[in-house]
Write a structure and sequence with these properties.
about 300 residues, alpha/beta, Rossmann fold, 8-stranded mixed sheet, two-stranded antiparallel sheet, 7 helices, binds S-adenosylmethionine
Length: about 300
């Protein structure tokens, strides 16, 4: 840990210990390049609809964690918005997928989660990888609200995360996207919420949730390098036949606190969902929430 002294209103002096982790690039790429990609790799990444497959190392067991994204998704975002050696932060790291991806492609990364069981899972996943690495990946059990205590301003190249979806997991799961004979699986009628801890932003109704997300990202903003990136993965959802547009709430919340929306990418999940049920037919047209999600791409704009 590195120490620094802070003077608050010239009255109180306190010592803050920063996490000792590198954030400078290790590659020889020119400084105006946003990543280490070749022109050919860049071209492939220009398509705005992305598909991924889960691999053996991915966590798909809902008992271990109810809502993970694939390692390949995290890897693609990290490759696009950082250089080797730069620092990635995941404020809601869950099972540690962002950290596993960062290690695969030689980026420093720190992930935070409120719940020790998920931090233990993240650490376990990281310990299974034995390859030599010049970079560090660290999982820390803490509230995302405390992240500014760990890092110097303007050291982070990318925030990458998938936050809780307001309190929309906080209800009994009915598996309506599945065919009727498959609905009553091990998740049926269970609540897949992470916890009832009031600090858990998955316990909040949409309006309070949006305020809290805005507040957390407002505090994170100074840590981001100028022109640093922030990618947030969220779906929208149906609640009592009403479309809950979580992605719009997040865009509005982040814009208010200084982030600029650069892009919206669609994560097309149709290759990983199968045997979906008939829902709404023939009078109520709705699309299955599970078939796509958003990747909201923001940056810290130049002043
Ligand atoms: C959608 S999951 C992240 C999943 C992750 N992308 C993965 O692949 O495993 C969101 C996580 O946010 C955590 N969380 C909720 N409120 C939090 C808070 N205030 N601070 C830190 N983590 C929090 C939950 O415990 C949950 O694991």
């Amino acid at each position: 840990m590195m120490k620094r002294d802070v003077v608050n209103n010239n009255l109180l002096e306190q010592t803050i210990e920063y996490l000792n982790i590198n954030y400078k690039k290790l590659c020889q790429c020119p400084s105006n390049h946003i990543n280490c990609m070749t022109a050919k790799e860049w071209m492939k990444a220009q398509i705005g609809v992305w598909q991924f497959y889960y691999e053996g190392r991915d966590i798909r067991d809902k008992e271990l964690h109810p809502a993970t994204y694939p390692i390949s998704l995290a890897k693609k975002c990290i490759e696009l918005f950082t250089h080797q050696g730069e620092l990635v932060i995941d404020p809601f790291v869950g099972s540690g997928t962002t950290l596993v991806a960062a290690r695969d492609i030689n980026r420093n990364a720190v992930g935070f989660d409120l719940h020790k069981k998920y931090i233990d899972l993240s650490k376990n996943r990281l310990s299974q990888q034995t390859i030599f690495s010049e970079t560090q990946q660290i999982a820390i059990c803490d509230d995302a609200r405390n992240i500014p205590n760990y890092f110097k301003p303007e050291t982070v190249s990318l925030f990458l995360t998938s936050p809780p979806y307001a309190n929309l997991l906080d209800r009994k799961r009915k598996n309506k996207s599945r065919r009727s004979e498959q609905r009553k699986n091990s998740q049926y009628d269970k609540i897949e919420q992470y916890s009832q801890d009031p600090r858990d932003i998955g316990t909040l109704f949409l309006e309070k949730y949006s305020n809290e997300i805005g507040e957390i990202f407002r505090k994170l903003f100074p840590l981001l390098k100028v022109k640093g990136h922030c990618v947030i993965n969220v779906p929208d959802m149906w609640w009592e036949n009403e479309r809950i547009t979580i992605h719009i709430s997040i865009v509005e919340a982040l814009r208010k606190v200084g982030y600029e929306l650069r892009n919206i990418i669609i994560w097309d999940r149709t290759n990983i969902v199968n045997r979906i049920g008939i829902f709404g037919w023939p009078s109520n047209y709705i699309t299955m929430g599970v078939t796509f999600e958003y990747l909201l791409h923001f940056w810290r704009p130049p002043a």
